[in-house]
Amino acid sequence: MPAASAETGQQSYDIAPQDLADALRQYSELSGRDVIANSDVVARKKSARVSGTFNADAALAQLLAGTELVAESVDGTLVIREGKGDRFAESSANRGTAQSDDAQIIVTGTRIRGAGPVGSPVTIVDRDALDRSGRTTLADYLQTIPQNFSGGPSEATFGATARGNANTNLNFGSGINLRGLGSASTLTLFDGVRPAMGGAWGAFTDLSLIPSSAIDRIEILTDGASAIYGSDAVAGVVNLRFRNRFEGAETRMRAGTADGDFSEMQIAQLLGKKWNSGHLVLAAEYYSRGNLPATKRRFTSEDLRPVGGPDLRSNFANPGTILAANGRVFAIPPGQDGRGLTAADLIEGSFNRADAQRLVDILPRQRSLSFYASAEQEIGAITLFARGLYADRRYRVNQRRFGPVPVTVTSANPYYVDPIGTGQPITVFYDPSADFGPEGARGRARALNLSGGARANVGDWSLEISGGYGLQRERADDINIIHITRRSEALVLSDPATALNVFGDGAVNDPALVGRLRGGLVSRVRSRVWTAALRADGSLFDLPAGTVKLAAGAEIRGERLDYTSVFDLFGNSTTTSRLPGLPGKRTVRALYGELVIPIFDAGTSLPGALQLSLAGRHEDYSDVGSTSNPKLGLRWTPVRGVVVRASYGHSFRAPFFTELVGAANATYQPVYLPDPQSPTGQTLALALLGFRPDLGPEKATSWTAGVDLEPVALPGLRLSATWFDIAYRDRIASASFDIFNFLARRDVYGELVDETPDPAEVAAYFANPNLRNPLGVQASDIEVIADARTFNLSRVTIRGLDFDASYRHSIPNGALTLSLGGSRLFSIDQQVTRSAPAINAVGTLGNPVKLRLRGRLGFEAGPFDGGLSLLHMSGYRNQTATPAEKVKSWTTFDLQLGARIAGAPGGRAFRLALNVNNLFDRDPPYVLFRTATSVLGYDPEQASAVGRTIALQGIVTW
């Protein structure tokens, strides 16, 4: 809502009785004052008529008459809350802090009640915006945020890339990745509490386990915040606020469909009960979505000629192709079962080819059931509170993780065919899916997150003690995988009843034999976190410009992670293994403090008002040492309608448990490296591989500067711009992928090469049991040491500009709205090592694009509302293709139409909405995107393959 100062001059008001939320919007436009209201607090409430000439306070008091709501001024913003007495409460700076929960507002980015984060940019997405977005899940909505990069853990990226920890997302969850710095560098909170983490490494918060219908608002802080929250808050913080103040009942149903029999359904129920001393909220949600086969989209075939790409179909086909001992190839003919096949039947010089994507899903089938509960009870001067979330999600997908491999067949096999008559072993390129079915996976992810505590107010101070516990369990079963040992044995058997036939067309093997040859892989993850916290905040003393406020606290947190895999792929028995470094556990102790200091205000000779925020946090880790992180923020309001702000701070990310394996996972191996400075062209090096034992936290320095404009002369207009700069150093990485260029590119890798190694150090490595010496060299032969281990190695610096513009214009019984926001990245300077030259990676494959935009044109007219939304992604370069490809920009439109029907039987209110996403069904731009086992014709890190979706949603409240 449009904001202005708290001036209370007389003006004319004419606000008709209507839904309170709409009346507050109209009041905000007329008065020029910023108003925040929890959607559940104002739901189903009607405003009183306001007609005549009033000052702003009196107009608001009349508007709220009979609603049992009050307005409190917090740093110039009006916060609507439950309460009794005067409809307009005094400023908290003058009278202290209100006692109800809604007055205990703590916005993401600060620990101080009633104070927004000084200097830092925060985006708040309320319930109304979520409903009108046309998006069903939180993950789907957050993909539309311009500051979010779709790379990292998501349903579409697992199996397609390993970048951004996408390869750890065993259960096809969804994370958030602000600025493209990795999902582990964005901190996600549930009502300010850390949840259990997801994935094999515990690298992200799984948004798919959160019922979107239970969310009241999303607060997105796009600034480093480790001084406030600790580890992971490098790129920013996403705080999910639940509907803890809901009262009444709400039922919602949604059904959607897209081309290719792709469908989704959501059914949710919310109940809320309030009494004089407390309240209770219960929520349940069921969500299901079908799979999306690759055959339903032309850009997900290996034959990309229809979209302007090459034909890259696999050489593994059914029937297959024989590679003879002399290197000649022979295609196996179709229409036969491999029995009685002769050399004369083979087609020399030809390869049978097949599209491996024909049996693959782009997106898995998902089904989830989630429950949420929130309770609060006042007992004298103490308020007890508790919250709990349980979610259970299951998935099923066809996906080729392992893929077929060439098999060797000898003359012992009864189906053996010798194309050249030498009786030597042959190699067959054979796709076993006709017999075994497509490779796939099914799994389950369950999460339990509990929090609770007690708080009390002592004068102007609020004291709170709280605790939380999170548990996430995941299981992933890879199915229809061939057991390597048993397959090798079946290929050399001479009995036709037990030997494997790889020469036929179609399913030609006995199902009993196929069953014996099936193997499997079962992966299990268990992630836990517990927290205990003590916090106090309140006023310290008064200055001429206002009250100095302090928040301080202590926290202790425990983290546990375990990941096990059970292999039935090799040998004669199953094998259980753990990732190195697991099971992992750590304890973190923290102390923090935050001050908000008013430097001057309008009552002085200086222009406007200036606020200063100082924050600091010290954390001590049981496994990686300690770290201290400060933050400074400034907020200056020189004149009405203008805010200038800036922030500076340090942030960090603690290493994953899987990165803290040290020498236990190290390998030392002599290897010859190309060396242009050597007379022989190569140098014998001792390569150090694995992980260094001295890994520490990744660290970042970030600063922002911005301005917010709300012109008094043009009510309803908002303009905002924020410059940001994040210098992320000591990133945990390895240069082992390019070890053979270490000596050829000393300008890049020189710091990783010891040109004059100490003979004693070399001798120690040669005495280590982790030495691998296939060359049989002596320690004295080693000329250099090349350190390709994983450690705090790389750097990245991101600079860019976020901007937002919006305008709201009142019309009879409604309003017209127009908004456009975006993020423009100017550079992503990446350094492989600290001394290497920086390479600007913005607008390249695997990195954020230069420009992302999100806009909307909307209307409200009585009971009707609607909007047309725009999402734009600029073009970029695919540097992995030869020659490099230029990827086109992509723009899509979403349509939303809604109607509200009030006064339905039983006091119910009904809202019906039609949502069409990707209205014109635009395919994503063509990209030659190579995966570990296949190829795609689009970029799953940047775009969606779903296409146009049409959904109908109904919401009933009573």
Q: What does the model show?
A:
Helix 1 (20-31) packs antiparallel against helix 3 (56-63). A hairpin with a 3-residue loop joins strand 11 and strand 12. The protein is globular. The protein has a 22-stranded antiparallel beta barrel. A five-stranded antiparallel sheet has the order 17-16-15-22-21. The protein starts with 10 loop residues before the first strand and ends with a strand. With 958 residues, it is mainly beta. Among the domains are: 11-95, Phage tail protein beta-alpha-beta fold, CATH 3.55.50.30; 664-694 and 735-787, no CATH class. It contains twelve helices and 49 strands.
The major pleated sheet works out as:
22 strands, antiparallel, barrel
Any idea of the CATH class of the domain at 11-95?
Answer: Alpha Beta
Helix content: under 10%
Given the C-alpha coordinates, what overall shape results?
A: globular
Name the beta content range: over 45%
Number of alpha- plus pi-helical segments: 12
Per DSSP E runs of 2 or more residues, the count of β-strands stands at 49
- SS content category: mainly beta
Uncertain segments are: 1-8, 84-104
Termini separation comes to 26 Å
The radius of gyration is 31 Å
The CATH topology assignment of the domain at 11-95 is Phage tail protein beta-alpha-beta fold
What is the residue-mean pLDDT, rounded to a whole number? 90
Second-tier CATH architecture of the domain at 11-95 = 3-Layer(bab) Sandwich
Main location: membrane
Organism: Sphingopyxis soli
Membrane topology: Multi-pass membrane protein
Domain Secretin/TonB short N-terminal: 33-83
